[in-house]
Amino acid sequence: MVLLIAWTQAATCGEASAAATGRDPDTYPLRFKKHNFEALCYNTLDCQVIYDHTNHTLYGTGKPSPPPPSDDYKKKWGGASYLGVRNFPGPVRIDWTSKDGHSHRAQIDLSEIFKDELILHRTPIEAIPEKAFKGPAGEPEIFVEVNNRTVTVYMKMFIPTKEPQIAGNSRSHFRDDLIEAWRQTY
Fold this sequence. Notes:
Layout: H1 2-12, H2 18-21, E1 34-42, E2 44-51, E3 54-55, E4 82-86, E5 92-98, E6 103-108, H3 110-113, E7 141-147, E8 150-156, E9 159-160, E10 174-175, E11 178-185
Parallel strand pairs: 1-7
Antiparallel strand pairs: 1-4, 2-3, 2-5, 5-6, 7-8, 8-11, 9-10
């Protein structure tokens, strides 16, 4: 499992070496010291996600959660609502009941999944404006999704780009790809 996580991070950090590109080695590869957090539950009979001593599913705890609203529902995820969490205050504790009535409990160690504090992204380093970042890159969004029997951890980070990502759209000089970092089915 750890090897898979390490491979996923290396494959999706979108980074060439800083020395090879003439970029500041204190900035590249992009790293983070704080993050934002969001938990989402779908297809459960009950779901509770606790992180940093906070119930992030307070309004859904003790109630069934609906299925995802559409096939492309993840594209509609905005930013995470729990802001500025210093890396990493402890595990994510999840207690939930899947659609088949089975109870599950998991602890997800984000400090292990993101042990190098690398920002997962798919933006090539040469596509990022030279002075877009200095030092730690900022606060990525970390999402934990509970969907029936599967728990998935994602990261999303706003990365400025030199060129628009949508031809003709002057407001598309960025990428914010949602990257899967970890998944487990129970």
